[in-house]
Amino acid sequence: MRTTILITSPDQWTAPGVELFQFAPIIPGGPDWFTKPVLIVMMSAVIAIALCWAAFARPKIVPWGWQGVGEYAYVFVRDQIARPSLGKDSDRWMGLLITIFLTVLIWNLMGVIPFVQYPVAANVNFAAALAFVVYALKLYLGVKHHGVRGYLRGIVHLEGLPGWAYALYAPMILAEVFVTSVFTHFIRLFANMFAGHLLIAFFSSVGFWFIFEQLSPLTAGLGVLGVLMTIVMTAFEIFIQFLQAFLFAMLAAIFIASGLHGSH
């Protein structure tokens, strides 16, 4: 459990807030950018590479151990994320999609790992950086396969609409494809991880304060409730972490497919 107690007086408890997401440089006097979230991102990359290496470096005919875990993850991403959007092109993009899925999943799970306890995607910069990579790839594929005019024409193809309706809907569709899509891609992930981390910190702080700091017959029940809610919210947060990794990778597959097929 992550406990963050802000004490303004000996008898006052203050709920944790945005200070949970503010970090000083790890090395005193070192570079300002080298903070705990950056270190976790580096650790996550090493973990993802190690997992894939352990699973696929020496594959056996009968999967066992890490290979079984790796193949399960691969089949899940292929069947539930890649094929529904990319169809016959899914195998070509599996390397990228499973990398995105594992990266976001490890980022998220770091929020419930003891002594780490920070989901990287709760920092909007990391979630946005990954989303903009997918966005740039979508535009590149659309222009490469269809040209600028062909790509735009495929996006705003509204057959059968009168001119006034086309003039109304075309800018809205273009705005959704080129502006709002990239923001909805990472804002969903960021908001869920931010809120979940804050809620777990809130309930763990309640439990810690009213059991260890201000224990009394009147407050013991509140402290126990805080501990129980921390356990429940942590379990729920793990489910959300998996779900958000799945949704982020699924949207990446959809955006890649839209670039390949030149359609909205």
TrEMBL record:
This is ATP synthase subunit a. Key component of the proton channel; it plays a direct role in the translocation of protons across the membrane. It is a multi-pass membrane protein. One of its GO terms (cellular component) is proton-transporting ATP synthase complex. It is found in: Cell membrane; Membrane. Keywords: ATP synthesis, Cell membrane, CF(0), Hydrogen ion transport, Ion transport, Membrane, Transmembrane, Transmembrane helix, Transport. The lineage of its organism: Bacteria, Bacillati, Actinomycetota, Actinomycetes, Streptosporangiales. GO terms for molecular function: proton-transporting ATP synthase activity, rotational mechanism. Belongs to the ATPase A chain family. The keyword Glycosyltransferase does not apply.
